[in-house]
Design goal:
- The chain is an all-alpha fold.
- It has one domain.
- 80% of the residues lie in helices and 0% in strands.
- Helix 1 runs antiparallel to helix 2 and helix 3 packs antiparallel against helix 4.
- The longest helix has 28 residues.
- The protein starts with a helix and ends with a helix.
């Protein structure tokens, strides 16, 4: 099995687990489908970056890690505090919305990275 095939297999597994588990918890097809789309897109873009641009991983210095930390921190804050227990929604729906927020942030970060990598110098 090739490296690309393993990536695809892992991606399909993650997408099925996230969307299937979310549908089982929330019983809302649209929420599960959109969450599957966000997580799947983010995973596909991440695997493409790893395959086509292996030298462009984030470095170890503060200069490299600060933007990753900011993105991750704010997305997590939005998912955990923004979709807070104070909202008048069920815990199952709160979990689904949190996964959707994290998936949307994941796609935003990876798509921005890919846009920067594929940008042509003028």
């Amino acid at each position: 099995m090739t490296y690309t095939s393993l990536h695809r297999l892992a991606g399909i597994f993650v997408i099925l687990v996230v969307s299937g588990g979310l549908y089982w918890f929330v019983d809302d097809f649209a929420l599960a489908a959109v969450t599957r789309l966000t997580w799947g897109s983010g995973l596909i873009i991440t695997l493409r970056i790893a395959r086509q641009y292996p030298s462009h991983t984030t470095g170890d210095s503060w200069r490299d890690k600060r933007w990753t930390g900011l993105s991750t921190g704010l997305i997590t804050l939005a998912a955990l505090v923004g979709v807070s227990p104070a909202l008048p929604i069920s815990p199952d729906l709160r979990l689904g919305l949190g996964l959707l927020v994290i998936g949307a942030g994941f796609v935003g970060y990876t798509a921005g990275t890919m846009a920067e990598l594929e940008r042509k110098p003028e």
